[in-house]
């Protein structure tokens, strides 16, 4: 059994799930390195990683890495005598780390944080389960957790509180998401949401709009943000899109996305629709 206090956690603080993992890690006294990288984090971009690990605790040999892929760096750590434990549930370019459980659920399983232990630490099991479920398959997964209407409201409220703790969304994000949603259109039963703003983070805001509009059976959805971001959600073609264009899959392989530099534009809407 791996004990939290005898392992070092390397985890970003870039979304609600990672924030929840960090809160649990703090509660169980787990030595932690917080990555400041946004979504798309890579282990090779963590500066002076080995020295930071040694600064945290030079005696610990178990390293737990959450959603920061980097096989070469992982091998380097193993060569240095560490045992590397990977927590992830995405499919990346040339790297398959897809799992059915969310990273939060994997973290709880790895350290045996069951309902009793969770509540002894001062957390509400329902709310924490809600964070894992939403990250696993968004709001529709709360139904799979057996939550009733009131419990869903509580879970969603807590998730939004975590979002606010991270800084929330800017007014610019909120305005653009509202504008995009109001201008949505359907094409061959595919919901299309288009923005010219690749510099904003509006996917999550649009997903909440979708969940409200389609409480069951959401349609395949394409979210286009200029030439820099593109996502397809609630689709059985997510793996095919990944095989064709690269990027990454999430949400139990029901969603696909790409976030790239301006020098390497994402596929066009026409190219994506041709595969759907």
How does this structure look, described?
With 276 residues, the protein is of the alpha/beta class. 42% of the residues lie in helices and 19% in strands. The chain has 12 helices and 12 strands. It has helices spanning 16-27, 49-56, 71-79, 103-110, 115-120, 125-137, 141-144, 149-165, 171-182, 203-213, 238-245, 269-275; strands at 7-12, 32-35, 62-66, 83-87, 90-92, 95-97, 185-187, 190-195, 221-225, 229-233, 248-250, 255-259. Strand 5 and strand 6 form a beta hairpin. The protein is globular and about 55 Å long.
* Low-confidence parts: none
As a percent range, the share of strand residues is: 15-25%
The geometry reads as: globular
**How many strands in all?**
12
Characterize the biggest β-sheet.
6 strands, mixed
- The number of helical segments is 12
């Amino acid at each position: 059994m791996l004990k939290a206090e005898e392992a070092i956690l390397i985890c970003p603080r870039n979304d609600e799930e990672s924030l929840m993992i960090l809160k649990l890690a703090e509660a169980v006294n787990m030595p932690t390195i917080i990555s400041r990288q946004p979504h798309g984090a890579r282990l090779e971009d963590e500066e002076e990683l080995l020295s930071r690990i040694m600064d945290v605790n030079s005696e610990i040999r178990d390293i737990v890495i959450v959603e920061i892929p980097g096989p070469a760096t992982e091998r380097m750590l193993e060569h240095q005598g560490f045992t590397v434990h990977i927590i992830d549930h995405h499919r990346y370019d040339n790297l398959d780390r897809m799992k059915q459980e969310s990273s939060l659920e994997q973290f709880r399983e790895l350290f045996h944080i069951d309902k009793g232990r969770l509540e002894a630490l001062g957390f509400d099991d329902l709310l924490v389960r809600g964070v894992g479920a939403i990250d696993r398959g968004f709001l529709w997964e709360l139904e799979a957790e057996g939550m009733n209407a009131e419990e869903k409201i509580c879970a969603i409220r807590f998730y939004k509180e975590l979002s606010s703790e991270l800084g929330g969304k800017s007014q610019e994000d909120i305005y653009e998401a509202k504008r995009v949603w109001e201008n949505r259109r359907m094409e061959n039963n595919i919901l299309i949401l288009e923005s010219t703003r690749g510099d904003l983070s509006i996917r999550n805001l649009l997903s909440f709009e979708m969940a409200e509009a389609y409480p069951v059976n959401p349609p395949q959805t394409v979210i286009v943000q200029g030439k820099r971001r593109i996502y397809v959600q609630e689709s059985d073609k997510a793996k095919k899109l990944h095989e064709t264009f690269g990027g990454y899959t999430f949400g139990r392989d029901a969603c696909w996305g790409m976030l790239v530099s301006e020098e390497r534009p994402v596929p066009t809407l026409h190219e994506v629709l041709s595969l759907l």
